[in-house]
Amino acid sequence: MGKSGKRKAENARAKKQPAVCIVPNLLYLGPLSATSNLDFLRSEGIVHVLSIGRSASSHFDISIDTPQGSRQLQYSRLALIDDKASDIGPCVDSACEIIDREAAEGGKVLIHCSAAISRSPTIVAGYLMKRCGFSLRESLDKLVTARDAISPNPGFLAQLCAMEAEIFDGETTFNVPLVGGRTKLANYLLAAPND
């Protein structure tokens, strides 16, 4: 199987994986398919679905029971193309605001893109650095441990490195060669020493 066929198979597998909890009682990451699993949304108490990409997920008019009472499921979309030249900064900032609002109200958020490989994990990594104080390395380790298919495109990784340096006074904890196509992030994290 060639590179293209292998990548298509990985994307198809990732699209079928369920959503995973990244920040307990607050933040989940998953593919588009997770947004139509109403049993999952209800059982986890997810009250906000945040789509990262060109098109939004399907909308369902349902109520979700939470410890704070019943809430209508909300949907938001942040436009981001999975291209190394796309600017992730505004999307990370907007996602942080949405997650902060839900956290203040005791809500839970599911962030997704098509397969939860590049766009949505990138935004979640930015959130973990900006709001949870994680280094980029810690953020990526957490994401890969929860969902091994993640692989932000090289441009997104470079921007996350720059974001980390801005947050942590010029320091970055993640140095991956960003040449050619995507690096299999899980393999890199397992092979590289954690400084």
From TrEMBL:
Entry EC number(s): 3.1.3.48
Residue ranges of domain Tyrosine-protein phosphatase in the record: 17-169
Listed name of the protein: protein-tyrosine-phosphatase
Classification via InterPro entries: Dual-sp_phosphatase_cat-dom, Prot-tyrosine_phosphatase-like, Tyr_Pase_dom, TYR_PHOSPHATASE_DUAL_dom
Ranges for domain Tyrosine specific protein phosphatases: 101-147
BP GO terms, sorted: negative regulation of MAPK cascade
Keyword field contains Electron transport: no
Keywords attached to this entry: Hydrolase, Protein phosphatase
Organism listed in the record: Glutinoglossum americanum
